[in-house]
Input
Amino acid sequence: MDNVQVMDFVLVIILVAIAWLIFGGAFRSRPKHKLKRESKEPSFGTSIDQSYEESDSEKVRSTNDVERIQALPNVKVKNVIDGDTVEVLNNFNVIRIRLDSIDCPEAGQGWGVTAKKGLIKLIGGKCVQLEEHGVDTYGRTIGTLFVYSNEKEDWQNVNERMVTLGHAWVMRRYYNHLPKSRQQKLNQLERWAKSKRVGLWKTEDAIPPWKWRER
Output
């Protein structure tokens, strides 16, 4: 191979190397594009035993609501008598509270023991906020209790929750003092629990306590 051929061969090698550096490097540095997966909104089904889940708009409380609840007297649940009656400790004074606007099965009635256990699970031994609505003929304070849920990071209305879980009926004869929105909420929760056969609504002989007491 003469010198001219050698020079031509070397030139070809150089050109190939330059082309590889320019084009090969560009392809190598091009970022890889991952296939995009379609994001699907999760579908939520509600089984019979699941509790009522509020929409996001219902969960969000205004600052005024939160401040109002936090400003209520803070008391500690000392004893759960039944599904709608508790004793709380307030500044060393024991107060008996009758949960407002709801009625749970009595101790000797079907679902009475279960309702009591449900209330114990919700607030047994816990500190709660007490909203008072007066005193009944038995000297008990009529009240709504609010307990803070770390899971939901929000205050829960205990009276409403007992209806949601199917442990109580709404007492429409005695809830006219509540704002219309809260009356409607109680009715909505009871309809939901009944339609899903939650709690006492899955039993065959669900008798309202006020009728059971007349026996």
Q: What stands out?
A: Helices lie at 3-29, 56-59, 63-70, 112-123, 158-164, 180-195, 209-212. Residues 81 and 97 are 10 Å apart (CA to CA).
